[in-house]
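Researcher: I've been going back and forth with a colleague about how SET domain-containing protein might be arranged in three dimensions. Neither of us has a model we trust, so I'd like an independent prediction. The organism is Sorghum bicolor, in case that matters for your notes. Sequence below.
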Amino acid sequence: MFLRRRLLSTAAAAASARGPPPIRVSLTESAGRGVFATRPVSSGELLHSAQPLVSHPSHSLLHEVCYNCLRRKPGEGRASSGGYYFCSDTCSDHAKGFHDIDKDVDWSLFDYHCSSRGLKYPYMAKRLACMVISGSANADCLNILQPARLHQGTLIEMKEEFELLESTLRKAGFQEEATAYWYINVLARIRINAFRIELVASSYEDLLSSAAASVSCDSSVGNAVYMLPSFYNHDCVIQLIG
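Model: Here is an independent structure prediction for SET domain-containing protein. You can compare it with whatever you and your colleague have in mind.
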């Protein structure tokens, strides 16, 4: 008991020495929840870090960013047999589960469907499906997040997308029991919780490149869904889809 009290006291003292968390979540007057600084924040200070539940590069940058963490390609890296770039062995190992599924599937029809319609979130649902098939993620891993409200027309389009995804996986020999209901619920959560990922420029050349990309509306390196950051913006009240 004495040791436990001492450990708790030491932990409390360490937390006190660090000061309060640099950010807090509060309600705004007109825009729902927001993240506010609790104290002056130094330049370059880390405010929060989180691992994505699922992510995917922008389609136009598939071979220019890490296929796992979305870090921009500096000119050197680890290329996979599928031609995708990984910035490190760690990312390559982390992606092995879904990438082993991904690289064995002919995604040409699915890619054409998405790229011709300017869709980005179905790519994330596709990756999550590969993660579930490989056993690296649970099928219900996004269920805790707030879903978007979907119109009937959107539901019809999503069902068509699922049929294309399902047939593509079946042609490759993957007979998973995914359903349209699962796909729609995944996309309903991705649509409202996905963050657009833009990386901080590390050089003057990167800054110019980023500025040019912003003008052409292509500054995003990809999209990702995070659990805790999503709670910063949304409550946990379940909305009906329909």
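Researcher: What would you highlight for our discussion?
Model: I'd start with this: The radius of gyration is 21 Å. After that, consider the following. Residues 1-8, 236-242 have pLDDT under 50 and may be disordered.
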